[in-house]
Design brief:
Oligomer: heterodimer
Radius of gyration of chain B: 22 Å
Largest sheet of chain A: 6 strands, mixed
CATH topology of the largest domain in chain B: MetI-like fold
CATH architecture of the largest domain in chain A: 3-Layer(aba) Sandwich
Strand order of the largest sheet of chain A: 6-7-8-3-9-10
Shape of chain B: globular
Structural class of chain A: alpha/beta
Strand content of chain B: under 5%
Shape of chain A: globular
Radius of gyration of chain A: 19 Å
Low-confidence stretches of chain B: none
CATH topology of the largest domain in chain A: Rossmann fold
Mean pLDDT of chain A: 87
Helix content of chain B: over 70%
Largest sheet of chain B: none
Helix content of chain A: 25-40%
CATH class of the largest domain in chain A: Alpha Beta
CATH superfamily of the largest domain in chain B: MetI-like
Distance between the termini of chain A: 39 Å
């Protein structure tokens, strides 16, 4: 497998407070995301998980090291071919569902029929075909998050970054959304990079799981789950499931305590 | 109509009926104010005769011009200021104290500089309205969630595209508040200036009729202004309610 994203010695230091003082948020980080894999990152709260995602997405520049996406350096500008679904609701309240999903295609050179087809396909994929003319205010939180997923999918990204997209949803909805994400991952053949604080979610979804330390966040372990590509949430019934989650917790426990005490 | 709507209609109807009764009973004499039904009749006659058409056209077109300039100028200025942090911080005290200054005080100066045409009146009306649009648009832009700004960057939208398709639409309910104020200020600015000094317009005609005890002209014109401003405001309010309802904001 080839590396799609490569981080070498990446670090991020913010200047915060008054007078401004440096805050070492993450790094040094070295790891690769392979093309087509499902990679999850777990870590204690405040360890810089979201910062890591923003670094890869080009939303914030790294202060040390280099990040490459498909061989090109990412320098504080979003590269073409990356889609992000955020934890917060990013649906556009003034547009109906169809126009929300179509939003990113507005300036593309695709024909109207091709755009329509992509939008319809994406709506079908996330199960919102019947809600195309509804406004976000009429939808539940989970449905709005699916609108954002569909809006990302129509751009046909080669790498999808998910920043705790189900953090605000209840446990049962999260399991079902997990199934949907696995299905989307298989059907789109995109690479998926998921940030989560839920160990079972990471274990259930990912091929590989990066474990982050307390701040400054570093990748201290990478766990291979070894799941088949065809899988769904019932994987939690497998005997290996508990073992993987236990290994994650074994590594994380000390780090989580550090982050609570600091 | 809702229950409250009926109450409102009842209150207005009651006040009009009371005025009518007071006028007919002679408690309010004819020289002070004609009965409401006479005012309506006179307004009808005035419109049919067309003798006020040029005054009405002058006032309405100047109001419209001042409003459009205040709205367009206000939104564009706010969108630019929102991106120029230092300039905005510099101007903030000006915006905060702006409405403490009676803009009409500048009117004689504008007449000296621009002459007694339409321009000084439009300028006064524009100046009254534009800051309300700027302040409300900035307020809306300040509320745009960071996640939307991030989304725009992920979609590789240009700053102009981001403003036109993301931040300004998000801020539209707040902008609409500014627009409603700008409409009211445009009317006030134009008609007020016409009162002070002008060669025509509804305000000028009211002031002229007042000086000549011409109640058959003065009161119908006042009623016309009331109808026009309430109608415009009503349309904007309906639009606003639809916008808010769609967003689940009410």
């Amino acid at each position: 497998m080839t590396a799609q994203v490569r981080l070498q010695n990446v670090g991020k230091t913010f200047m915060t407070g008054r007078p401004p003082a440096p805050l070492h948020a993450v790094g040094p980080i070295d790891f690769e995301i392979r093309k087509g894999e499902f990679f999850a990152v777990v870590g204690p709260s405040g360890c810089g998980k979201s910062t890591l995602l923003e670094l890869i997405a080009g939303l914030t520049p790294a202060t040390e090291g280099t990040i490459e996406f498909e061989g090109t350096a990412v320098k504080g500008e979003a590269p073409d071919g990356i889609g992000v679904v955020f934890q917060e609701d990013a649906s556009l309240a003034w547009l109906d569902v169809r126009r929300n999903v179509e939003f990113g295609l507005r300036r593309s050179s695709l024909s109207a029929t091709e755009k329509d087809k992509r939008v319809s396909d994406a709506l079908k994929l996330v199960g919102l075909s019947d809600f195309a003319s509804a406004y976000p205010a009429q939808l539940s939180g989970g449905m709005r998050q699916r609108v954002c997923i569909a809006r990302t999918l129509v751009m046909q990204p080669r790498l999808i970054l998910l920043d705790e997209p189900f953090g605000a949803l209840d446990q049962q909805t999260r399991l079902l959304m997990g199934d949907e994400v696995l299905r989307l991952w298989r059907e789109t053949s995109a690479t998926v990079f998921l940030i989560t604080h839920a160990l079972d979610e990471a274990t259930m979804l990912a091929d590989r799981i990066g474990v982050m330390s307390a701040r400054p966040g570093r990748i201290i372990d990478v766990v291979e789950t070894g799941w088949p590509r065809e899988r769904d949430s019932r994987i939690v019934e497998r005997p290996e499931f508990g073992g993987i989650t236990a290994r994650l917790w074994h590594t994380l426990r000390g780090e989580s305590m550090k982050s609570i005490k600091s | 109509m809702s229950k409250v709507g009926w109450y409102r209609t009842l209150v207005i109807g009651g006040i009009v009926a009371l005025l009518e009764a007071l006028c007919l009973a002679g408690i309010i004499d004819k020289i002070t104010m004609p009965a409401p039904h006479i005012i309506v009749r006179d307004l009808w006659r005035m419109i049919v005769s067309g003798r006020m058409n040029s005054a009405i056209a002058k006032t309405l077109s100047n109001t419209l011009l001042a409003f459009v300039l205040a709205m367009g100028g206000g939104i564009v200025t706010a969108a630019l200021l929102h991106r120029a942090r230092a300039l905005r911080d510099t101007l903030d005290p000006l915006f905060a104290t702006y409405y403490a200054v009676p803009v009409f005080a500048f009117y004689p100066f504008f007449i000296v500089v621009f002459g007694l045409g339409d321009l000084p009146q439009v300028l006064i009306a524009f100046m009254l309205g534009v800051v309300a649009v700027i302040v409300n648009t900035l307020n809306g832009l300040d509320r745009v969630p960071t996640v939307l700004a991030k989304t725009a960057r992920i979609l590789r939208m240009s700053p102009a595209d981001t403003a036109m398709r993301m931040t300004l639409p998000y801020a539209s309910p707040y902008i609409l508040t500014g627009i409603k104020l700008a409409v009211a200020y445009a009317f006030i600015g134009v008609i007020g200036s016409e009162f002070i000094m002008s060669r025509g317009g509804i305000g000028y005609e009211i002031s002229f009729a007042y000086a000549n005890f011409d109640n058959a002209t003065m009161y119908p014109l006042i009623l016309l202004i009331l109808i026009a401003s309430v109608a415009v405001n009503g349309v904007l309010t309906v639009w606003e309610q639809r916008l808010l309802a769609r967003r689940g904001m009410r």
